[in-house]
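Q: Sequence in, structure out?
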Amino acid sequence: MDIETQDRLYREGLALYRNERMRPAAEIFGRLVLGGSQNPLHLSYWGVLTATVQGRIREGLPLCEQAMRLGAGEPEIVVNLARMYELSGQHARAVELL
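A: Exactly. Output:
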């Protein structure tokens, strides 16, 4: 998938996510990541959506941690990882990260 297509899909997925249309957002971020994207933002949102839409926290958390390693300092990635820590019951870790 070329960069322009990835960028377009990211913007579409993010708009859906922000409008609380989680299932279609999950489909888009899944398409990006399963299509080979290693963009930290793509990984981060796919991780959160894997956990929240599909209920697979154990699969979503490592994706968000990988995104953090690749894109540390990006506010959206930090917030998404904190959400994952919260979902997995690691409340203190979420607070520490934020």
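The CA atoms of residues 83 and 94 lie 7 Å apart.
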